Amino acid sequence: MRKITLLLILISNTIFAQINVDGMDPFSDFQDLPSDTDVEKYGLDESGNRQAYSVYYEFYKQKSYDAAIGTWLHIFFNAPKLSKNIYVHGVNMYRNFIKNESDNVKKEILINNLLSIYDQRILFFPGEDSKILGKKAVDLYKYKKSDINEVQKAYLMLKESFEMQQETSSASLINYYFYSAGKLLGNNLLTKEELIDLFSDLSGVIDYKEAQFSQELFELSQKSDLNTKEIKAKKIALKETKTLSDVRINMEKALAPHVTCSNLQVLYELNFEDNQSDLNWLERAAKLLKKGDCADTDIYFKIAAKLHESNPTAKSAFYMGYLSLKQEDYNTAIKYFSQAVEEEMDSIKKADYLFYLAKTYYRKGANASSKKYAIEATQYRSGWGAPFILVGDLYAQSSRKCGENTGNSTNDEFTKRVGYWAAIEKYNYAKKVDASCAEEANTKIQQYTEQAPDKTSTFQVIGLDESTYRIECWYVEVVKNPYFSQY
Questions:
Q1: Which backbone phi and psi does 91 adopt, to 5 degrees?
Q2: How many CA atoms are closer than 13 Å to the CA of 384, on its beta-carbon side?
Q3: Integer Cα distance of 169 and 175 in angstroms
Q4: Is the predicted pLDDT of residue 29 greater than 80, yes or no?
Q5: How far, in Å, CA of 278 to CA of 298, rounded?
Q6: Residue ranges of domains in the chain
């Protein structure tokens, strides 16, 4: 068992008695324990440790942390495998002690104690090491950000945690990872190029997590009654979404001058030869050039092609598809997007690739195929409005082509305009399931409401007592009559 240093403080009536076990292994008594699980969990004094846990936990629930800390420390040392709650509660208590301590020396000791709690949790409850390391790094940065050496330590821990967790990283970890990198840049301990690489990595994960939380919140919104677990999940999703949005805004504000197409083009052209065998570099560069709508540059072509040649994956096929789409080579784009869809196992990413496939067919003028893949995309990601906006656009741009030519001008004009009703219904649905689409949807609703049949023509062709109207064109849609009246 590896040695660790634990420096903990007993708190009683605001009097601090320092326990220094530096150089000792407080868990040495456990090295030769029998395999009996009760002994391993409760320690050698099961009855006493059960009682101590009960005492501290009762005080903890009442937020009487000064009263709880003594018996908590007893459990921490004597039954460290009793429960993960020991470490969750310990972190909460020590954060409270730090917040309320005015003496800088004592505060520094408390901070070190807090960090040691994370170390012991990793030691006795392995399996979530990357997650706990990230939490430790966040607290290290928050409490010691005035010391650039500690910031550098926090940055390296955050980097290690992020690289292990990727899209499962918390919004807090992403936030402080970028903050710590920015601070290192300001102290010339990180280059601008390294920060740009980090921006690429983080922005991709933020995109994914926002889609994930949007889907989760939509699914929860469809339930009439939420249980306790679902209420908690909703609260977490809302909080994480807000933090991710703030992180995105801060990152884009900080790097906006450096991630323009012209700047990125110069940067990646300069470094391409040296990095063309580095798959991570290629993927970061492709991701950022796409994000900045720079796919029509020569360097994006070279990077995307090299990435797909060196390591063909669903993602590299997507980058090639995106390049082909920008070049208006729709057949090639369809080939690559289809490949990406086929090879991708993650539902959110598959939905994104299907949506691009739908957009390609839209640009090609293949309306039925475009609608097919747009709807299929929503089957892999619920609560997403963009595909329904696209279907609305399909209906709107083909409305007049779907009209009749009977020679009856009133009837023919009505049928050429009624497709806008179908488009408007899709825009309304898009903003209903996805609030982020509301602005775009409202703009299009206003535009096409002005072009849709008015009340007079509706009355003349189908009457106001008909609640629906069936459109039959390249699509079949039964739409509501907005002027329907039962009287």
A1: -60, -45
A2: 26
A3: 10
A4: no
A5: 19
A6: 1-126, 385-487
Please report where in the chains the tokens 């005015």 appear, as a residue: 102
Does the pTM surpass 0.90? The reply is no
Q: Report the alpha-carbon distance of residue 103 to residue 87 in Å, rounded.
A: 25
Q: What are phi and psi of 226, to 5 degrees?
A: -105, 140
CA angle 424, 425, 426 (to 5 degrees): 90
Both tokens of 276, joined, read 């063309």
- Cβ-Cβ contacts under 8 Å for 214 (sequence gap 6 or more): 241, 383, 384, 434, 436
Identify which of 142, 233, 283 has the alpha carbon closest to the alpha carbon of residue 134: 142
pLDDT tens string 185-210: 999 999 988 999 999 999 999 999 99
What is the spatial distance between Cα 356 and Cα 314, in angstroms, rounded to a whole number? 13
Helix (H/G/I), strand (E/B), else coil: 384: coil
Q: What angle do CA 197, 203, 208 make, to 5 degrees?
A: 135
371-401, pLDDT tens digit by residue? Answer: 999 999 999 999 999 999 999 999 999 999 9
Report the C-alpha gap between 118 and 132 in whole angstroms: 6
Q: Are 411 and 418 in contact (CB under 8 A)?
A: no
